[in-house]
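Practice problem: predict the structure.
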Amino acid sequence: MNLANKLTLLRIFLVPIFLVFIAIKGIPYGSAIATLVFIIAALTDKLDGYIARTRNQITVFGKFMDPLADKLLVTAALISLVEYHIVPSWAAVVIIAREFAVSGLRTIAASEGMVIAASWWGKIKTVIQIIAIIIALLEYNLSAQSGSMVNLIYYSNIKSLVTELTLPMLYITVIITLLSGYDYFAKNRHIIKVEK
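Answer:
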């Protein structure tokens, strides 16, 4: 197994670690650790893609597992943030539904012996999703750490700025997510066969 694929598997392995720290309350600095784990996992996505391209390590395994690892990471973060009332449930449902739909399309393609690699729209979607989730995680961190902040005025200004950024970024994320989903289905509509 090449390095790019190992990084993809590392991203999958980091998902339950992220969930432990964000879901279990009472862990010292749990929200901060969860955010750091998420950021590290997100960075492996850029790194494994770069390594696969520059070292000519693009494989069928990578084409299938890399998008799956992204979906697991994003889904875990969104559901966790819905629970803490940072992300609206409708936004999470739209984003996750698109991920399931594209995964279904990939499954159909695989049954026909084809592999659908990530498109440019899909890559842009992933970057926007990661940025939006990091902002939402920062909002959650600021809310979780509010009792321990010394400079309340400074803290309040930072929290207000992050809170104001979260919802617009989620709207942008939903729009880009839907556009990328449309792009996948439009370009691969020949894969879907309607039985007569």
